[in-house]
Amino acid sequence: MTSPEAPVRTEQQVPSLAGDPFGETVLSDPFEFQRELRERGPVVYLPEYGVYGMGRYEEVRAALVNWQAFLSGNGVGVNPARQHPKSAILELDPPDHDAPRHTLEPLLGPRRLARFKDEWVDKAEALVDELVQREHVDAVSDLAEAFPLSVFPDAIGISDEGRESLLLYSDHLFNLFGPHNALVERGQAAFPEIASRIEDQVHRDALAPDGFGSELWEAADHGDITGELAGGLVRSLLIAGIDTTVHSLGAIIEAFLSAPDQWQALRADPRRARVAFDEAVRWASPVQTFFRTASRDVVVGDATVPEGEKILMFLGSANRDPRRWHDPDSFDLNRDPSGHVGFGMGIHRCVGQHVARLEAECVLHALARRVSRIEPAGEPSLHLNNTLRGWKTLPVRLVPA
Ligand code: OVM
Questions:
Q1: CA 240 to ligand 1 center in whole angstroms
Q2: pLDDT at 220
Q3: Distance (Å, rounded) from C-alpha 341 to C-alpha 275?
Q4: Which residues of 367-390 are buried (b: 16+ CB within 10 A; e: fewer)?
Q5: DSSP class of residue 9?
Q6: Where are the domains of the chain?
Q7: How far apart are CA 291 and CA 282, in angstroms?
Q8: 171 CA from centroid of ligand 1 (Å)
Q9: pTM for the full model?
Q10: The pLDDT value given to residue 84
Q11: How far, in Å, is the centroid of ligand 1 from the Cα of 66?
Q12: Which end of the chain is more exposed for a tag (fewer CB within 10 A), N or C?
């Protein structure tokens, strides 16, 4: 029984979990670490980094919606917020977060996206028509990378920056949310030059009319946001809008490889594409983790996270918490995946999720009509990243229908 005089609990009372959540071992196979994390309690101390962590669905969700207690402005990585370039949206708290969020949200909402649908459907169909004729397909480079790169930079209105640069840029920034490990080291040499070329793309005169980019600059003209934020939000679209979609499309192919009967279920009723995509985001959690900072001493379960401490939110773990999900490791179109935290939750929930859903729907519809079976065609290899989980290669055969 807890009495009113019970002493305030400190990290001494919070169970510890040894191991490096950003080490190669855990990044390669996070599931055992995540199971232990959930078993230890609603919040644990991670001595490797001197931070706290949460892996259970209920507490992760509650923390994500409680932006007053769990701040983003101090950075959502293990280190303080990025300064050069400073994020225009991700690492801000209200009230600074409000204007950029309210400006961007309608631009990326379902209504405004409808104008892209016919073109994206055509592009997905042309791509899949070509892929079904090949003996071997790499579901990563040929599909999961090819499709977003063929539609999203155009939708922003940037000139062709080169697919490799965009992917490397964003991959490195996602690595920078983690510690300065080998993954960060590896990306450092190429980064400054790529970043400076991308910086040139966010200015208004570099952006094609009618894209998201010029719409953001128009919002600046209307006084909704500053010009600095307009450019910053274009940059955010480039950082957050490509790799994430790439890894979620890769995940959906992996998901169907793991559950061929679910592929047949989708083919039988392609209207299930949207549920399939959300279930794949739950199942794979392409964005695995983000940090928050306690704005005050916060009670989680029967423990207290002291003010100023960082807490790692394990989205991937929450999305496979058996306390919330029946048979969480199975990819199942018959479950209702809504409520997963793969897009986050609360004021920072993924603002681009409707774009991702539309891209996935176009790809899945094109595949469902043309592909009778998706078969493995070689050993896949993982792409390691401090924040993202996905594949480097995923060899498949797309058996024509
Ligand atoms: C940024 C940014 C925004 C959204 C996501 C993200 C997940 C970065 O503005 O830098 O990485």
A1: 5
A2: 98
A3: 15
A4: bbebbeebeebeebeebbbbbbbb
A5: P
A6: 24-400
A7: 19
A8: 11
A9: 0.96
A10: 79
A11: 19
A12: N
Nearest to 321 by CA among 301, 341, 347: 341
Dist CA 29 CA 33 (whole Å): 8
Q: Distance (Å, rounded) from C-alpha 80 to C-alpha 67?
A: 17
- The C-alpha atoms of residue 296 and residue 60 are separated, in whole angstroms, by 17
Q: Tell me which residue of 45, 35, 53, 46 sits closest to 321, measured CA to CA.
A: 35
pLDDT at 12: 55
Measured distance between the N- and C-terminal CA atoms of the chain, rounded to whole angstroms: 63
Amino acid 124 reads A
HSE-up (13 A, CA, CB side) for residue 302: 10
Rg, the chain, Cα only: 21
Name the residue of 176, 202, 236 whose CB sits within 8 Å of the most ligand 1 atoms, as the mutation to test its pocket: 236
Dihedral angle sign, alpha carbons of residues 83, 88, 89, 90: negative
Task: Report the atom number in ligand 1 closest to the C-alpha of 170.
Answer: 11
Nearest CA to ligand 1 atom 5: 240
Contacts of 119 (CB under 8 A, 6+ apart): 151
Q: Is 87 in the pocket of ligand 1 (CB under 6 A)?
A: yes
Q: What is the token pair recorded at 59? A: 């507490």
Q: Which residue, by CA, sits nearest to atom 11 of ligand 1?
A: 240
Under CATH, which number does the domain 24-400 receive? 1.10.630.10
Between CA 137 and CA 131 the distance in angstroms is 7
Q: Which residues of the chain have pLDDT under 70?
A: 1-12
CA dihedral (369, 332, 28, 51) positive or negative? positive
* Tokens linked to 205: 């005169």
Residue with tokens 């232990």: 36
Please state the atom number of ligand 1 nearest to the C-alpha of residue 174: 11
Nearest CA to ligand 1 atom 10: 87
